[in-house]
Please model this.
Amino acid sequence: VTVKLYELAGAEDARLFSPYCWRIRLALEHKGLSFTSLPWRFTEKDRIAATGQGKVPVLEHDGRTLWDSWTIAVHLEETWPERPSLFGDAGGRAFGRFVADWADTVLHPALIRLLLTDIHAVIAAKDRAYFRQSREERFGMSLEQVTAGREARIEPFRQLLAPLRAGLARQPFLCGESPAFADYAVAGTFHWARAVSPLVLLADDDPVAAWRERLLARLSPASRSLTRFY
Amino acid sequence: VTVKLYELAGAEDARLFSPYCWRIRLALEHKGLSFTSLPWRFTEKDRIAATGQGKVPVLEHDGRTLWDSWTIAVHLEETWPERPSLFGDAGGRAFGRFVADWADTVLHPALIRLLLTDIHAVIAAKDRAYFRQSREERFGMSLEQVTAGREARIEPFRQLLAPLRAGLARQPFLCGESPAFADYAVAGTFHWARAVSPLVLLADDDPVAAWRERLLARLSPASRSLTRFY
Model:
């Protein structure tokens, strides 16, 4: 199997801080597929120009180039149906998609406002001007203004996780006794944060923290090293 | 089939304003099961004393008494597996449960703070003192204080629906081409609101509004009459 995966990388390559790249890395590990990681920086648009868009993850396999983490996950599932399933069944696929939508629309907008300056601090030097300009334009204020007073927004962030707690009160993973795509869709969110920020997002006694630990324990050593910082 | 369903009722019986009762009514209609509705008021705890708890829906079937909307839904699915499935498969069941958890923990806490005085206005006279006292104790303020300035909280409520919009941009129902339990878990939330309140919760051009209309169009005439008010 020759799979190449373009993944967002920081100044030293040694951390992965895109929730969408995490989803695909976790999906590849779930399926037991080896792959070559190609570290990619924000400003290296030319390296993925063939996709007609400017974001990673981008996956190359068997002469095909795919992008968008959902599209890639479905490709992996359909290409290797005999390997451990990411979705289990059609309903599980709908479940995974809904949880990913929820993370994308609820968790990520809240979290980026906590992490923005931390991300800026760890990205490659050549990415910094681009990152600052594009994000300050998006938020209509400076990076520092976005994250100012962020400690007060940790508790509201924790409250957003209530739907996870309800499920994790009944079972160890969102998908049941073992994790699958719905878990990875949210795990990517937390691994992203952990790779860049010292913020303590989860209280020690939060069931979500225990769930995150279970998922961290399942990571390969290589992946674990990409989220080792906090 | 002899199924009896205790359902929350207002002063005139003619509206149903419990999201959990709605879930079960929608589930029964999905399975094509006829049932006898037993209107129940908040203060009639003695009529459901056998359940050891004080809430509806309560379902009686074949000598058994069941409560908790999720337990009842699973019972319906397992008792009549040959009828249209509420979940489709194991993953669909997990999907339905997650969406119900999300509605319970995110939508309902926001919505009750918009609807509380409207509910008080339509419940049976004998329920009003109980309702006011128990809810004012829960919220630590008067009913009127809870809903004061609610117009300003409609837009934040709409923002909570972002995960639904993502899915409904791709397909007519959360469950795909036709609705199932995950749809009913959220439809119950909106039918509840529509049964008691003139508040316009959804903008006309919101895909969630079009989805709600599709679900309203599928209701039996009897059920439609229970959410006819607004």
About this structure: The longest strand of chain A covers residues 3-8. Chain A touches chain B at residues 87-95, 97-99, 101-102, 104-106, 162-163, 165-167, 174-176, 182 (CB under 8 Å). The beta strands of chain A are 3-8, 36-40, 58-61, 64-67.
